[in-house]
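haha ok so turns out i had the wrong file open the whole time. this is the CORRECT one, sorry everyone. sequence first:
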Amino acid sequence: MSTSTSERELLINGDFATGDFTGWEVASEYFHLHRQDRRNVVVATPSPPNLSLGQSGLRASAGEYATSFWHCATDAQGTPIEGETRFFAAVIVIRPDDPEAPGDIRPLIMAATRWTKHATRFTVPSMSTIGFNIQNLAQIIVPVPDRLRNEITNGPIALHSFSIWRMS
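then structure:
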């Protein structure tokens, strides 16, 4: 009998079904929940560095994992805005229990436009603690091609359906 994805899920309240931030660490003045299209979405307004929405202390044994979530450029209530492009960061931190083993920090810089699902895989080499954070930075800290510079705006992004699960 196979184990279902929900039995292997590491995040708590990844879809915000409780209607609040249960299980999440949040800089509340920059992250707000709104109801959109029969689901709760979190709207992240631009914030200073080190203020994020995330979960830490997630226990993971050695194996292959995946993470996914949806994102979109929106107004302050989570309504999509056509034609907008906004950069934001997601960070996965893997800290092995063995203090001699190297940790791993995986920054993911993404562009939010229309509703898009992001998914990535990663390996946990030994028993570890995982952290996951989202930041909508007030300042763009990544190089942007000149042809896109005028298309990028700074404003809210909406996210929903966060998941981190063990694949094997």
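DSSP finds two helices and ten strands in the chain.
again sry for the mixup
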